[in-house]
Design a protein that fits this description.
54% helix; 3 helices; mainly alpha; elongated; 0% strand; 71 residues
Length: 71
Amino acid sequence: MKTITVKVKAPDWVDEKVLEKAIRRALRQVIPPPELSAEEVKETFGVMEEDINIKAEDVSKLRGKEKERLR
């Protein structure tokens, strides 16, 4: 993999962080990274954190179904 440096001339009123995010988003459409951080996944796919209540019995049922599937 090679590194490419890009220089951008922008007016003073341009927010550098917003511009960087826009450039990164555009690059991800062309060159997907090998790994994404959790924050990048949230930003890319619009994932919102919600309060999710998972009961212990639901987890045990899911594990049981997974064990059956693997047999």
